[in-house]
Write a structure and sequence with these properties.
This protein is an all-alpha fold. The chain has a domain of 40 residues. It has 2 helices and no strands.
Length: 67
């Protein structure tokens, strides 16, 4: 296991706790499913071979014009 930080809307965390959900486990399971889906789409290609495709997590670059 690795400890990491994930930013989640405060209201979502509150609701999850009210429902008795383990936020860490829900995030872990969602990440596993996302990885499975990516592998179905890209096969066993390495991430380096994925370049040229749309970045699913563009971060601070999102919405900025490039030169």
């Amino acid at each position: 296991m690795v400890k990491t930080t994930v930013k989640v809307e405060k209201e979502l965390v509150r609701e999850a706790h009210e429902l008795g959900l383990n936020v860490s486990k829900v995030c872990e399971n969602a990440l596993k499913r996302a990885i499975e889906q990516m592998k179905k789409v890209y096969g066993k290609n390495s991430p380096k071979e994925w370049c040229g495709r749309r970045d699913l997590n563009p971060g601070p670059q999102r919405g900025r014009l490039t030169s």
